[in-house]
Amino acid sequence: MAETFKAVVVDQRDGGQVAEVREVARGDLPEGDVLVRVAYSGLNYKDGLAVTGKGKVIRAFPMVPGIDFAGTVEESGAAEYTPGDRVLLTGWGVGERHWGGFAQLARVPAGWLVPIPEAFDLREAMVVGTAGFTAMLALMALEEHGLRPDALEGHEVLVTGASGGVGGMAVALLAHAGYPVAAETGRTEAHGYLHELGAASIVARATLEEPGGPLGSARWSGAIDTVGGAILAGVLRTLAHGTSVAACGNAGGLAVSTSVAPFILRGVNLLGIDSLPTPLERRKVAWDRLARELPRAALGRILDRVVPLGEVPALAEDILAGRVRGRVIIDVNA
């Protein structure tokens, strides 16, 4: 069936990269088992890098960015899904090497999708999106390495980059589970927002970026780091003995200047969280837990705004500049 649809397309032109809203033919979609009528996508930090060309995110041109989306199955060649099913996709190279969520239609392999839990409507599922999924994977990893609310020995659990999407979700999930949460942010105007999400205390970014010896005072019973770079190094130096940090971001840089002292003398664990290739069963467990454990009030606080497809190129600059708090959702049909 001949049809065109709107999409943000990133292409190369005159030696540079251009992002613009275009009409695209359905026949131009990549191969896949399932055709999804997209309702919402999220604007994440990686999307900002892809749209602006400030990061080597896109692997082939032209590309439709958008690393997550929620929508309804329109056509399916897979037994797992039938037309009308509500589905969500996070990761798997969508928006990088396979056309992603900034479009009204998407065609993907069935194994990349996960059914949306009944507790969420399409918009709520996308407010959670990659950010909430990643935060839950980080919490699961910490718990699997011994984190429990009754075994904190007086220390808080730290969340870095807490005013961002993953950070805000992590604060809300940890607080709801009974953990005392310290939220790190470089934005003083976000303090009230973080307390509303459940943070017991606020940590200034400068205190973690300060240079120091191989070890500092033990302050944290665990941590979720969404920043990387100097912040992650500061976290590693100040974790309590036998605890872990789940690291899932690199906005602060890929280089981490630390020593082996935290690992040998305090026995800390560095847990890498990559949401892209998570096996289906673990994805389902994470989404089932999100449906049960993420407070609905937190969704409203974490959602910064819902914007139409045409605003994506401008907003990509804002998210890279740190001018976005929480989650920005793209209504691709607005």
How would you portray this structure in words?
This protein is α/β, with parallel strands linked by helices and 334 residues long. Helix content is 30%, strand content 27%. Strands 3, 4, 5, 6, 7, 14 and 15 form a seven-stranded mixed sheet that branches.
Uncertain residue segments: none
Sketch the topology as an H/E string, one letter per element: EEEHEEEEHEHEHEHEHEHEHHEHE
Radius of gyration: 20 Å
Distance between the termini: 23 Å
Multimer state: single chain
Our estimate of the beta-strand percent is 25-35%
Molecular shape: globular
Mean of residue pLDDT values: 91
The helical percent reads 25-40%
- The count of β-strands is 15
Q: How many helices does DSSP assign?
A: 10
Structural class, from helix and strand content? alpha/beta
Major pleated sheet = 7 strands, mixed
Give a quick precis of the structure.
The protein is of the alpha/beta class and 334 residues long. It has helices spanning 45-52, 122-144, 165-176, 191-197, 205-209, 229-238, 261-264, 280-293, 296-302, 312-320; strands spanning 4-13, 16-25, 34-43, 68-76, 86-90, 105-108, 113-115, 156-159, 181-185, 201-204, 220-225, 244-247, 269-272, 303-308, 327-331. The chain starts with a strand and ends with a strand.
